[in-house]
Amino acid sequence: DPEFTNIEHPCRGTSTTCTNPQPNTNAQGRPCATSCWRFAFRYHQEVSKDTNGFMIQLQEKEGLGNGQQIETLMAEEAGIKVFRFIEQYGKFDKKDVEATSKAVE
């Protein structure tokens, strides 16, 4: 789909903005194999919000990718906190993950 990560596409992962012709949820109301990626991602953002969670985002030196920009917009709309880590040394490894975990505890 050429619109997969087009930020101008109107879908923001909600039932009112998603234009996916396939079912977005299974019988339990959870995302399924035919879900739009934005719908599935937004679902998990909403679950995170409901449990006082947050989103962690890794930004590479080149900046955020198109999909990450969309995820950021959806997080803002969902009202969840975003922690963004900016790559500076060429890799994000286990020690960085551990330091991140301690920082957000």
Mean pLDDT: 90
> How many helix segments?
3
What is the strand arrangement across the widest sheet? Answer: 1-2
Residue fraction in strands: 5-15%
Helix content: 25-40%
Task: Provide the structure class.
Answer: alpha+beta
SSE string, helices as H and strands as E: HEHEH
Q: Mind telling me the C-alpha Rg?
A: 15 Å
Q: Which geometry do the CA atoms define?
A: globular
Sequence stretches where pLDDT stays below 50 over 5 or more residues: none
Largest sheet: 2 strands, parallel
| Number of beta strands | 2
Could you explain how this protein is built, in words?
This protein is α+β, with helices and mostly antiparallel strands. The chain contains three helices and two strands, in the order αβαβα. It has helices spanning 37-50, 66-78, 94-104, and strands at 54-59, 81-86. It has a two-stranded parallel ribbon with strand order 1-2. Helix 1 (37-50) packs across helix 2. The longest helix is centred in the middle third of the chain and has 14 residues, at 37-50. It is globular and about 40 Å long. The model has no long low-confidence stretch (mean pLDDT 90).
